[in-house]
Model the fold of this input.
Amino acid sequence: MDSGAILIAAARTCIVARLVNLLRRSLPWLAVLALALGLLAAVLRLAWLSDDAYITLRTVENLLDGHGPVWNPGERVQTYTHPAWFWLLVAARWLTGEHYFTTITVSVLLTAVGTGGLLWLARGRAAMAALLLLLLGSRAFGDFATSGLETPLVTALLVWLGCIDDRTDVGGRRLFAIAGVIGLLGFTRLDLLVLAGPVLLAHARTDRPLQQAAVVLVAMLPLLGWSVFAAWYYGSPFPITAYAKAFAPGLPTGELIVQGLRYLWLTASTDPVTLGTIGLGLLVGFGARAVRGRMLALGVLLACGYVVRVGGDFMAGRFFVPPFVVALVLIARWLRTARPAVALALAGFVAGAIWLPGLPPWLRPPAADLEPPTVVHGIQDERRFYYDKLGLFSPRREIPQAGRFTRALERQGRQGKIVLGSGMAGGVPFAAGAKFHFVDPWLCDPLLMRLPVLDPGRWRIGHFTRGLPDGYAESIAFGDNRLVHPGLARFYTSLRTVLRAPLDAPERWPALQSLWLGFDDDGLRSYTTAEYRRPPRTTAMLAELSTPAPVGTFWFDAPTVRCIGRGGLRLRTTTVQRAGSAIVHLVPWIGYRFTFRLGGKEVGRVDVPAYGAPLGEPPAGDDGDVLGFLQRFVGLQAFPLVLPAGMSVFDTVDIDCGHVLSMDQPPDPWVVPAIGGLQLKP
Done:
């Protein structure tokens, strides 16, 4: 072999050796890159928007349309729980002019920022791989990395807090940064202060307490400023959802704790990686030498306790994502100093645990998410419930169009507002637009959410149904205070002034003081104690309904129409009446019971299941007949009423309402029962 061939062979050997060495060094990084890309693909595969996100997005649209940051135009109520997330969505929606892909994009970017911060904390390749596998294995994290709720912003802020907490510098500068991020977390969701608050204790010193308090107050000015603004603008520093779920449920603490334990158990059985990570984070944190690690762990423990105390949530796993993220921060810092073999062992264990509840959802095709999930103790896989219409890759995706029903009504010449109950507070009101006022019995109404749950024996977590007081629907529709109970009417006068009067109106300041200091709370309490769950029957004269309002008339357009409260309606007569049948004009989709009495004694009873005309889906385009659809839905319809055979005369008619399928069940919350006419026939 000549010298040239020898040189070529040696060169080849050297190149191969270098390539092998390069590949050996690169393989771990390639594995980390593959896992990171896999996590991105998983987040995109699962991407969706929840119906609750559209509560916030309706407020975004109202603000950009000039109605202010409100859910119902003309009524200043903070229905969103996450002010920082709300204002971020406002900016993003203003920039792009579109809500669906914008919200998902912002969510994905923030999730990527949070993930990048975790990897920076871990540093090592094996530790990074373990963290990425933990993120891939958490079903709750994958479900709420998008969804349109605040979780991606919370993730980024919590990781940022962990990174600042990890710094070695001391003094006021780090305390200011820590307090600033905690303030932003509280600005995002107030209950996150339970999770992040203990970190402040790790950075406070015993000397110069006043100076440190000043540093903390200045750092938290965004949160404090928002609280002051909300107290002035909305009448309370707390969102109305806090009243709905935490302040006024009216349920025994023990029942909520039992429900919270169910939430914990369901998460453990369907998402073991999430709770397992939280458990490991607690062990690592409480076992750390540095007090800051123990304070992070204390925050995780307090947050989990808070979740159990409030009964968890109806969205499976959602409330465990923030403590899961903080647990990841603790694990990342631990793995950074541990031997690579420890991180590899953890990665191997997690790679197996991912499969324990079955095939991970991000490996299933989108078609697998089109069937609604099973509800267990009021808890469900919320992503699967809405993925059919709101999933990014759903073959049946339907992106709601903001205000399309309002545009159609304006084209049809409708001038007045439409007053409806709210079965779902998100997508439907978002599509309805500014011409609709929704009275929501679960989350969004400013008066109802200050009342306790109507039936303490029948409730679903996150859906504490309230009952409408007599006269409340009419107060919304006609613009004056028509509440029947005097104490409640007095409270509502102050509340209504705060929410509806011009911001600079002279009567608004005394009303704010009354609301803040509870001057009229005794009226609210007296109603709750005396009449809320045992409402009296209201009365009217039968003669007032002898000339019926026309078919298709909305109850909120005709002052002669009588709404029927939960206690029922009694129609009196001045003389004894004789009839064999009648025609009644009723709001449909309600069950009505007519009880005829003579001298107080029942002489006959007729049930009228008031089914309306088939509705189908609401008109899709701006040129659809939305007015006709609504007239069939909540407009008065005529129903025959055949009086019982043998019933001769009567002097009183009692009307009670129930579900259209069964009088033993309450009516659906999106329909207000009402009667617009009762014509007696021989």
Q: What stands out?
A: The chain has a mean pLDDT of 91.
